[in-house]
C-alpha cells in the first residue's frame, strides 16, 4: 500500500455484511475506495463468528441427529453413528475461510484497498488506520466515511457474568461455536434466536441443555403464537426451559459453571450447575476507539450511531450502516431498502445493493432450528 495515494472517494470502517458490500459496490461504481477491518479477516461477525459458523454447526448436528435417531422409522438402520467433534469443527472452519477468502477476491476484482487495522476518525474526511501488526498510523483522506463497525455480545443486565472464551466455561456465542468437547450440561442465558440456535446444536450432539430466560416467553419480537409453538417443539426435542428467572451471577468454579438466579415473581434463589454457561442476551453496537467523539458523530442509546433515513449521521460526509445503527441485529437489516429519490447518495447506493445480495440469509435462517413453525 505504501507509495500509493491515500486519498479516497470513500473509506469504509468495518468489513462485515454492512461494510464489505458497501465497499464492493463503491468499487463497482468506479469510486476509489478503502475498507479497514481490524479482525484480520473480512466478513465481520456474520461470516466469522455468527450466521455462517452457526449454520454450519446446525447443519452438521442435524445430519448427525438424523442418522443417529431419525432414520429407524424409515427402515434405515445406521448402527454405531459417531460424532468426531474435531472434524466437525474443521468443516465449520473450512466453510468460513472459503467465504471470507471469496470476499478478498471480490475486493481485488473491484479494486477495493483492504487495510488490516483499526480505523479511527480523526477529523471530517480523515481516518487514521492503526495497522494490526503495530507501527505508525497511516492517514487516509476521503470525501465519504462509512461506519460499519457492527456489534458485540451484550452483558447480562444487573448480573455478574464474566465471559472468558479461552477457559470455555462461561462463554458468549463466539466461544460456544468453538468448544473442544461436547459438554454434558449447557446452560443458555437468554431465549433469543442465538441462544436457541446454539442450544439446538449442542443438544443434538447429546448435551443436556437448560435455557434460563427473564421473560415468560421465548424469542422476543416474534409473534406470540409462533413463539409458543416453537417452545413446545424445542421442549419435545429435549430442551429444558426455566422461564421468569433473573440471573444474578454465572461463575467459573474450578472449571465448572455455577449460575445463581432469582425467580422474577419472587421466591427462593436457585442455583444451577453446568460444564458450560452461554451468555446470549443480545448484542450491542460497537464503536469503541472509532473516534466518533473527535468529530461529534451523535451516538444514541447503548452507543448506537444515530442516522437519518438516508444513512447519514449528523456530520456531513459520514454515514453509518449495519448493527452499529438502529434496527434488528440481523444481516438483512444491515442493508435496509430506501426510496429511489436517495439513490444519488453513495452510502445509500452501496447499502441497497448489498441488501439484494444478502437478503436471503435472514429470511431463511434467522430461526434455523429444524421445526415446523
Ligand atoms: C451466533 C450468531 C448467529 C447469527 N446468525 C444470523 C443469521 O442467521 N442471519 C442473520 O441475518 N444474522 C445473523 N446474525 C447477526 C449478523 O451476524 C449481524 O447482523 C451482521 O454481522 C452485522 O453486520 P455488520 O457489518 O453491521 O457488523 P459485523 O458483522 O459485526 O462487522 C463489523 C466489523 O467491523 C470491524 N470493526 C469494528 N470496529 C472497527 C474499527 N474501528 N476499525 C476497523 N474495523 C472495525 C469488526 O472487527 C467487524 O469485523 C448472527 C450473529 C451471531 C453472533
TrEMBL record:
Named cofactor requirement(s): FAD
Classification via InterPro entries: Class-I_Pyr_Nuc-Dis_Oxidored (IPR050151), FAD/NAD-bd_sf (IPR036188), FAD/NAD-binding_dom (IPR023753), Pyr_OxRdtase_I_AS (IPR012999)
Coiled-coil boundaries: none
Assigned EC number: 1.8.1.4
Catalytic function, reaction form: N(6)-[(R)-dihydrolipoyl]-L-lysyl-[protein] + NAD(+) = N(6)-[(R)-lipoyl]-L-lysyl-[protein] + NADH + H(+)
GO MF annotations, alphabetized: dihydrolipoyl dehydrogenase (NADH) activity; flavin adenine dinucleotide binding
Domain of life: Eukaryota
UniProt KW keywords: Disulfide bond, FAD, Flavoprotein, Oxidoreductase, Redox-active center
Keyword set includes Disulfide bond: yes
Record domain FAD/NAD(P)-binding: where: 8-329
GO biological process, any: 2-oxoglutarate metabolic process
Cross-referenced PROSITE patterns: PYRIDINE_REDOX_1
Pfam families linked to this entry: Pyr_redox_2 (PF07992)
Gene Ontology CC terms, in alphabetical order: mitochondrion; oxoglutarate dehydrogenase complex
Family statement drawn from the similarity comment of this UniProt entry: Belongs to the class-I pyridine nucleotide-disulfide oxidoreductase family.
PANTHER family named in the record: DIHYDROLIPOYL DEHYDROGENASE, MITOCHONDRIAL, DISULFIDE OXIDOREDUCTASE
Protein name: dihydrolipoyl dehydrogenase
Organism: Seriola lalandi dorsalis
